[in-house]
Amino acid sequence: MSEKPKTIDDSRFSEITRRVLEGRREEAAEDSGIDLETVGRLAEQPAEVASDLTASLVVAMEERDWLSYQMIEGHYVRPVIVLQANVRAVAAVSANGRPVFSEQVLAVVTVAGQGRFSDSTLQVLADLTPVWHPQVSERGAVRLLGEWEGWGEALDSFRELIQYETYDCAKSVLAPEAAVWARSNPSRFPVHEVTGERAD
User: Fold this and answer.
1) Of 16, 37, 46, 108, which is the most exposed, with the fewest CB atoms less than 10 Å away?
2) What is the bridge-based pairing of β-strands 80-85 and 105-110?
3) Helix (H, G, I), strand (E, B), or coil: what is residue 17?
4) What is the rounded distance in angstroms from the CA atom of residue 128 to the CA atom of residue 137?
């Protein structure tokens, strides 16, 4: 039985890349615990390393029963992946201030050349599944809160955010009106534990 290839941990990727670009491959390999040949691919064929990290993302998505996904282009090299988060979210707020719920959120993850997760990696498809949240803009940009290491923690952070388990009305605000509403309605959160209106 062959041993599963070791992939580069997302949290270390940037530092390893810097050392490789500075010509310090041996140091990068020793520090990461990855063989020198694999580290060398960082400089020579970065798309292949992105492929390894995409595989890590797929594993993280497969482990989460609340999440469905579809890879729509690029295969395992810098792909675009559509996520369907099967969780309750606030799609809008009615005239009387009550939340209008949706039961799923569609988003796109783009695995960039560096293979790391960042705020710019994830975007809600706001035209199809709008999200009313201080950290989600009207056009779907997302600003995750807190710190995370690896794809799994980033995906969990996204779920917690759209369910209002986490939100910030003072910092990192992308939707000021949603921040004002959230500040006035803390008893409505997290949204999977309260009632409201259903989005059509």
Assistant:
1) 37
2) antiparallel
3) helix
4) 14
Instruction: Name residues whose C-beta falls within 8 Å of residue 157's C-beta, 6 or more positions apart in sequence.
Output: 144, 145, 146, 148, 166
d(CA 13, CA 25): 13
Query: Quick check: helix, strand or coil at residue 2?
Result: coil
Nearest-angstrom CA–CA distance, 81 and 75: 9
Could you give the C-alpha distances from 182 to 105, 133, 144, in angstroms and in order? 19, 8, 16
Which of left, alpha, beta for 32 (phi over 0: left; psi -120 to 50: alpha)? alpha
Lowest average pLDDT, out of 35-49, 94-108, 151-165, 174-188, goes to 35-49
Per-residue pLDDT tens over the stretch 35-55: 555 545 444 444 444 566 677
Q: 3 by DSSP, 3-state: which?
A: coil
Mean pLDDT of the chain: 75
The vertex-87 CA angle with 85 and 88, nearest 5°, equals 130
Whether residue 89 is predicted with pLDDT greater than 90 in this model: the reply is yes
| 94 φ, ψ (degrees, to nearest 5) | -75, 175
Six token digits for residue 186: 């803390």
